Amino acid sequence: MKTAWKYALAALALALALAPVYWLVTISIKKELDQFAYPPLWWNFAPTLEHYRDAFGARSFGRFLANSALVAAGSTLAALLLGVPAAYGLARFRWERLSFWILSTRMLPPIVTIVPLFLMLREARLLNSLLGLGLLYTAFNLPFVIWMMRGFFDEVPVELEEAARLDGDSRLGALVRVVLPIVRPGLAATAVFCAIVAWNEFLFALILTQTEAAATLPVGIASRVTQYEIKWGAMSAAGVVAMAPVLAFAAAAQKYLVRGLSLGAVKG
Amino acid sequence: MDLTFHGITKRFGSVTAVEDFTLTAAPGEFVVLLGPSGCGKSTLLRIAAGLETPDAGAVRMGGRDITRAEPKDRDLAMVFQSYALYPHMTVAENIAYPLRIRGRPASEIDAEVRALAERLGLDGLLDRLPRALSGGQRQRVALARAIIRRPKAFLMDEPLSNLDARLRLEMRAELKHLQRELSTVTLYVTHDQAEAMTLAHRIAVIDRGRLLQYDTPWNIYHRPANLFVAGFLGSPPMNFFDHGEVILGVRPEDIEVSREAQPDWQPARVWVVEEMGNESFVVLHAGDTRVTVRVPAGARFDLDQPVWFRAAPGKTHRFDPKTTEALG
After folding, report:
1. Which element (helix H / strand E) includes A189?
2. Does the first or last residue of chain B, that is N or C, have fewer Cβ atoms within 10 Å of its Cβ?
3. Does A168 touch chain B (CB under 8 A)?
4. Which residues in A lie closer than 8 A to residue B131 (C-beta atoms)?
5. How many CA atoms lie within 13 A of A94 on its CB side?
6. Is B251 in contact with B238 (CB distance < 8 Å)?
7. pLDDT attached to residue A258
8. Which carries the bigger pLDDT value, residue A228 or residue A261?
């Protein structure tokens, strides 16, 4: 009986979470007329791929996709390269105030920084550039990486490193050969979150990239809202395509994600 | 290779963990640092390892000053209380790690790991991860990892304390045999007097960061240098009798007890009898003082029974109540 309730609740939560996705996917394969039918056509419509042709056929779709991939991968890598050593330092040497200060950069709504950021990037000639956007996402994700990874490093007993150093390894060697392999699940979880944030980010990308050459996928999709019409079908098709890599990434890292999020909960 | 602490002082904030500590472990010697928890013995081990730097004093090994050397440059091996096995490496990889770091060829490493594993009864476990091992097996892996590169000294921090009682005795004997065989100078930290007595060539008794006595187990037990050492070693502990200008100490086995009155013996009553199987401990009340006596198994004493006791002639230790030092 208890299990039945559990499954019912899980099903409900799943339905709530997946309903918009279902709507997105069906809109992307409905003919324009069916999209606005009332009452809505939940399943009995003739599917079409015309919106996908429309979306992919658009001049810059491939460009947007590549831009997004580049910015997401680049900023994730950069945030990890900077954040992981910082997190290790914070975990192993006691700098409580500094950790708080790092987190404090996440405490204001990001939108309030947009005007100064716009001006700074303009002065640096990094408006409309993937490098500028990537730098920004790196900065956004950095405190997150530091805080996540600090938690994972805290879980690794100091004795393991001490043992490695006595076994003949340097501090850096102990970090690379002993500590990092142990926190690999945490590393994977952190990377997935960073990549998703960068991949989905819309607001800053919209304001800081005004040319197609530098626009990312969310901005590209939104550009199908034009003065004359809103291309729901093409937008939905692009949305489905945008979702796919994140899903694939998360599925591949799932085993790490679950372990990463529960690391330390179980003594092993 | 000998290992020397020379005038070591270490403070953590306002707490002095170790104060002016000097001790030399001779080549091949097994030295046990014995003391209650928080006495500074683990700090000394960590200073020897290079994991802590002393505020004053020097650590020397074979005459070379290693006070500020990196742990990796000291060529010491340490066995931790928690074993500190690398959880993501197999048993073989754990044991091989010190050799791998030194860039030894893989075939050579493999042969040495196999030989050592066989010697320590670990063959057949080489592909397992540490979490699939029992406590005793983990202990052996930790030992193997320490032994494999034949370091100049072993440092051991309560290595047996996580094992159950029976396994602890077994590993204690194995450890002693292994150390005598390798003849490598060893510093061993424990609060367990039985481990100290059985393992050590010499015991260093430490309290509140100071070295109170450094001698063979026999002398530590039979000629304690002060009240603390006298009371810390021996189970049950030594009986103390305060006579104002002198404190007398008598071990439970050095007290004679009689069911009949004897001239110059002190009267007392039996308070409790603890039977251990191979011997018994009788606790007497003589006025306000409580006296523990070791008697042979089978000796019959009843609760509240009147008895008479005295210290066996020549078996009394005398201590100065002011300095707590032993008197001639």
Report:
1. helix A184-200
2. C
3. yes
4. 268
5. 0
6. yes
7. 66
8. A228
Q: What is the CATH architecture of A59-262?
A: Orthogonal Bundle (1.10)
Q: To which residue do tokens 């392999």 refer?
A: A181
d(CA B249, nearest CA chain A) in Å = 42
Burial class (CB in 10 A: 0-12, 13-18, 19+), A57: exposed
Q: What is the pTM of this model?
A: 0.82
* 3-state percent breakdown (helix, strand, coil) of chain A, nearest 5: 75, 0, 25
- Domain with residue B303: its CATH number is 2.40.50.140
Are B102 and B57 found together in one domain?
yes
Nearest by CB: B77 against A166, A169, A178: A166
- For residue B154, the chain A residue with the least C-alpha distance is A166
Distance from C-alpha of B256 to C-alpha of B124, rounded to nearest angstrom: 55
Nearest alpha-carbon partner for B240 in B286, B174, B304, B194: B286
Please work out, in degrees rounded to the nearest 5, the angle formed at the alpha carbon of residue B70 by the alpha carbons of B65 and B75: 75
Query: Which residue spans within B158-265 are E strands per DSSP?
Result: 185-190, 202-207, 210-215, 239-242, 247-250, 255-258
Rounding to the nearest 10 degrees, give the CA dihedral for residues B130, B43, B185, B193: -80
Domain limit, last residue, from B181, B197, B227: B227
Domain boundary among B205, B227, B249: B227
A182–B80 C-beta distance less than 8 A? no
Residues of chain B with pLDDT under 70: none
Enter the ipTM.
0.86
Cα distance from B165 to chain A (closest Cα, Å)? 23
Q: Which of A157, A162, A167 is facing B101, going by the closest CB pair?
A: A167
| Dihedral, CA of residue B94, residue B99, residue B100 and residue B104, to nearest 10 | -150
Chain A interface includes B72 (CB < 8 A): yes
The C-alpha atoms of residue B68 and residue B269 are separated, in whole angstroms, by 60
Alpha-carbon gap: A262 to the closest alpha carbon of chain B (Å): 17
Q: How far apart are CA B108 and CA B147, in angstroms?
A: 16
Between these two residues, A189 and B232, which has the higher pLDDT value?
B232
Q: How far is A206 from chain B (nearest CA, A)?
A: 44
